[in-house]
Amino acid sequence: MTTILLAIVGVLVLWVIFAYNRFVSLVNKAKEALSDISVQLKRRYDLIPNLVETVKGYAAHESSAFENVTKARAAAMGASGAVPAVQAAAENQLSGALKTLFAVSEAYPDLKANQNFLQLQKELGDTEDKIQASRRFYNSTVMALNTALQVFPGNLISSMFGFKSMDLFELSAADAAAAEPVKVQF
Question: Is the pTM of this model over 0.70?
Answer without folding.
Answer: yes
